[in-house]
Prior knowledge:
Blueprint: H1 3-30, H2 37-55, H3 58-66, H4 72-90, H5 93-116, H6 119-141, H7 146-152, H8 160-182, H9 196-209, E1 219-221, E2 227-230, E3 233-238, H10 245-264, H11 280-294, H12 298-312, H13 320-327, H14 341-360, H15 368-380, H16 406-425, H17 429-434, H18 439-448, H19 458-465, H20 474-487
Parallel strand pairs: 1-3
Antiparallel strand pairs: 2-3
Amino acid sequence: MSAYDELMAFTRETEALAQVAGLLSWDQETMMPRGAAAQRSEAIGAMESVLHARRTDPRLGEWLASAEAPDEGGAAQLRLLRHDHERALRVPGDLATALARLTSHAQGVWAEARAADDFAAFAPVLRDVLRLKREEGAALAAGGDPYEALLDGFEPGARADDLQAMFDEMRPALVALRQRALEAPERAPLCGDFDADGQMRLARELAERFGYDFSRGRIDKAVHPFSSGGGDDARITTRISAEDPFNCLYSTIHEVGHACYEQGIDKAWHLSPVGHGVSMGVHESQSRIYENQLGRSRAFCHFLYGRMRDIFGDIGVADEDSFYATVNRLHRGHIRTEADEVQYNLHVMLRFDLERALIAGDLQVDDLEAAWNDRFAADFGYPVGRASEGVLQDVHWSVGLFGYFPTYSLGNLYAGCLHEAMRAELPGLDCDLAKGDPGAATGWLRENVQRHGGLRTPRETIARACGGKAPGAGPLLDYLEDKFGALYPA
């Protein structure tokens, strides 16, 4: 075997073990008995120890030094493996194991604290998580910015200052749109009997319409919806709200976007570095375009209005136009995952600033809840009522995902670019969407983005799909102004 072949055979086994570790985490969120939490933390820690040892194996460096790529795909494999190997070498094995064990435990503590609206019960374990993430960030940064080093694990090549500039560009237009909308009479939410079985039945139908392959996936319920796995085992979760079925339906469409990305990657690359979404920003571009530009479009709302009336009967909305306006209503609210397209990025900006301050040491955990509440009141104009609507609403920090939040907005930016390019090539798309058939759009995304996996860098992936046009905020801001300017005219 050549050095390249030996490297890829070894990597395939590592990827398979990583899939096992992912299944442990998926089970913890969906089916694991509550009493198994401590034991599961030990199991996840043991798996991370094995994985870290493989990712820092001295043979990897030898193979990478002498391996020759057979083709473009092989060159991408080597690029990604070098990136991951260099990062793994900077993090001590005992730190990687301790983080995996602690974050598995912290996730359960967070869930209980969230249910009890008790940040004080979560703060001690968050302090421990933050301490270890600061250590990890410092090790990865090797004298640079620890937060940026953590960010690189989710969006390779991204720079915190560039993200700040992106937010600074977006904020004025978003705030102006929000202000115009919130000065208008608030539209009422849906009203009806939205039983759980009906919500899950429609959620499964929507997942299939958006191209999710249930022979290689499944849908379960979780406190915080997520997508897990990849290739031939890509699973999703959603959650039920008796008062707001959109929570279930659009969470499902969102997670289907993630899962379809993974299912759509060329099978020749399964269990390899190229066989994953190239970054979380590109991943979020798929989930957000599925959920928003497609799922919340006027055309698709025409179809969804009829299906919801079929399943739930009277839903408290008089006609299709009113339904479309309700789906896309701007409203006061605290929860990021339930936010409209205009205000969503403002939620992300809040988290971006707070977590940068946490990693830098400028903000301490004991002051986090107050800092969150003060920032939210300043940004949104009304107070946070309880911790589950504020600092405890997201799972991310409990599992150590510092640097993840800005990829949501980066995904929105990428989705705006992809939507502009897609619409130019699919002029008849609305006719299909009105019939409940997003297949032309999802097929376009599969061909232009998803099947390539990690073949190219994140920005190159989006630029190639958009005919060579570099990604920027303009298409997203134009889309939001067109859509919400019509819904909320000046």
